[in-house]
Amino acid sequence: MGWGAPKQAWKKGPWIHEEDELLTEYVKFHGEGRWSSVSTSTGLNRSGKSCRLRWVNYLRPGLKRGHITPEEEGIIADLHALWGNKWSTIARYLPGRTDNEIKNYWRTHFKKERSSLKQQKRQAQMLNIEQQQPRQTDKEETAAAVKGGGSTEHEDQCMAVMPEEAASLLDEYLMNEGLWWNQQQQQVNHPYYQHAGNCSNSNIAMQTQPAAYYSYGGEGGYIF
DNA sequence: AACAAGACCAACCGCCACCAC
DNA sequence: AGTGGTGGCGGTTGGTCTTGT
Fold first, then answer.
1. Buried (b) or exposed (e) across A119-149, using 16+ Cβ within 10 A?
2. pLDDT by residue (tens digit) across A63-72?
3. Which one of A4, A34, A42, A212 has the lowest number of neighbouring Cβ atoms within 10 Å?
């Protein structure tokens, strides 16, 4: 598929400083996009796909480097509970962070917690069976899962009724309004939230607010 | 000091959607 | 309507760094 001449033996592996400079210069003059012509314009022996990735994940101005903050971690956890593995969507609400970064972070931090939670749940269920007691109620299960950053059937149901259009609507609305958010602003009158309000799980309904609700860097934040 | 295991991160791959022709 | 090019996304891999023993 695409991305320049497919038969060409593109260079792979880590980028060197000179390559970064060539790519940066190219983007400076031509803007983002037209990645397949980077190699012909710059002499860079990299596929367009590789160039795009390097730019988006590493060279693009405004990228934040360094550790994910606790605030960002909270946002990631909540948005993941809401959208699942929609890394690029989640990344939109974390200025300066890339989808790749968030994805990596999730895998190394939350996956662990999640698997241990599953293990705990399994143990609890075994205990229930052993003690011939009724199963944990859905409510308790949900609360435990949300607390632990895991997912439940309830969440899956909620995610099912909160498709991409909802997120797009939110994006469009916020962009049109040019909204800046601070800690005083706690609610937004938007169909997205009304939709979320129908969700049977109050925890999840609460979690439909984060994009607009969260402050960023401790003193207000912005979208995009 | 040496080694192993785990954590972290950059980069690649395959797939899909969109668009122009 | 079909096809190919392009852009983008999510999953995975592999190398490097850090930490514990």
1. eebeeeeeeeeeeeeeeeeeeebbbbbbebb
2. 887 788 888 8
3. A34
